[in-house]
Amino acid sequence: MAKTRSHYVCQSCGASHLKWGGKCDACGEWNSLAEEITEAAPPKSMGGKKGRVLAFEPLSVEHAPPARMATGIGELDRVLGGGLVGGSSVLVGGDPGIGKSTLLLQAAAKVAASGLPAAYISGEESADQIRLRASRLGLSQAPLGIAAAASVRDILASLEDSPPALVIVDSVQTMYVDALDSAPGTVAQVRAASHELIRFAKKRGSAVILVGHVTKDGQIAGPRVMEHMVDCVLYFEGERSQMFRILRAVKNRYGATDEIGVFEMTGSGLAEVANPSSLFLPERDRPVSGSAIFAGLEGTRPVLVEIQALVTPSPMATPRRAVIGWDAGRLAMLLAVLEARAGFRLSDQEIYVNVAGGLRLSEPAADLAVIAALLSAAKDCPLPAGAVFFGEVSLSGEVRPTGSHDARLREAEKLGFTRAYTPTRHKARQPEKTDLSLGITPVAHVEEMLTLAV
Ligand code: TYD
Ligand code: MG
Description:
Layout: E1 4-10, E2 16-17, E3 33-39, E4 68-69, H1 74-80, E5 84-85, E6 89-94, H2 100-113, E7 118-122, H3 127-136, E8 145-148, H4 152-160, E9 166-170, H5 187-204, E10 207-213, H6 224-227, E11 232-237, E12 244-252, E13 260-266, E14 269-272, H7 277-280, E15 291-298, E16 301-313, E17 321-324, H8 328-342, E18 349-355, H9 367-379, E19 387-389, E20 392-393, E21 399-400, H10 405-414, E22 419-423, E23 439-443, H11 446-452
Parallel strand pairs: 6-10, 6-11, 7-8, 7-9, 9-10, 15-19, 17-18, 19-22, 22-23
Antiparallel strand pairs: 1-2, 1-3, 4-5, 11-12, 12-13, 13-14, 15-16, 16-18, 20-21
Helix pairs in contact: 8-11
Bound molecules: thymidine-5'-diphosphate and magnesium ion.
Thymidine-5'-diphosphate binds at residues 94, 96-102, 133, 136-137, 265, 267-269.
């Protein structure tokens, strides 16, 4: 009988330990070690048998770009880089209840309706539950094959004979490989199940989409080990209390990773939002203080979004600072720049910054809009109506140029804005465009904001 060996694997980072402990030494997570039993394989040496000789191929072969299969959901296709690639594997992660199953059932039904065979396999819901969801989504007539299964062996056996163009596995944490003793959802099972499904995709040319749950701190549970195995990693995010959701690519072997897809959760499933700016802009008749519109960029698409700030005197020695949808460290930096470079002191004030609508911004170009919102809030004076802001602020207080200057201005103009506070352009690199009706106020230094905008 083969000897078994037990070791303890961190369910958060996948590190393996010989002894159980309360804390994982590798990632510092508490209470995350679980016992896994493996068969101890006899150590193999490299000696003796010779390996197969590889036939190296030249790099410069005429190669057609990979064929893409459009899912028919434009926002999903955009994030995938133009549709699914046959033989590829995609991991879709997100909090429970965010809408992963809804989105993928809709995508599978669309693909099936377009005439390509598709299969939706759920380890979480029964066939009746899937049918119920489909009827709520108005998809009951789609020629989609559904199955409730959790054994990877059964799944592969069923797909082997006629591999569908698209296979959805919801979720990978419920799948198990019967050769392993550990429970579904453990690192070993998730790794083995993903490995088998990805290998099937590569071998048979199906596109496989795996659903993965995310832990409370935002990692795909069971965990990083999957992210490097798949070709694309998409995160589906949003506040559950808000109606819209954002699909974001964090890894894509076949496209850009900075694209986002925007959806709205409606009574009949997820609807695409083709013009996201309309979601993130306020609808009010009179201007209020502490609100600035940022002309941002998500991937290749310009998105306008409201940044809100609240500044109030603090009774505490260390005033509170809270940021939602932006980087707290970046806010601390801007406050320091305002104080040191523009003589505007906020250190005895509580400061709250919120990006409207639950969008998460990562662009440094939001700096100028945050500064505008902070100044407006601190002075309780609304910013000029119809104004947008963008520009990166450096530690010296200078406002630096950002990419896609014109795309941002065009989007602002299209949505009826009349003035833009922007970095000064590199004259040589970006000749002035004259066909814009929007007024431009170049801002070279944050100090100027004190007199220009408020
Ligand atoms: P679901 O796709 O089950 O989430 P996940 O697979 O990520 O866990 O989405 C569940 C939520 O979506 C649930 O709270 C109800 C809501 N929902 C709608 O608002 N409209 C719909 O048409 C459907 C199917 C779900
Ligand atoms: Mg689900």
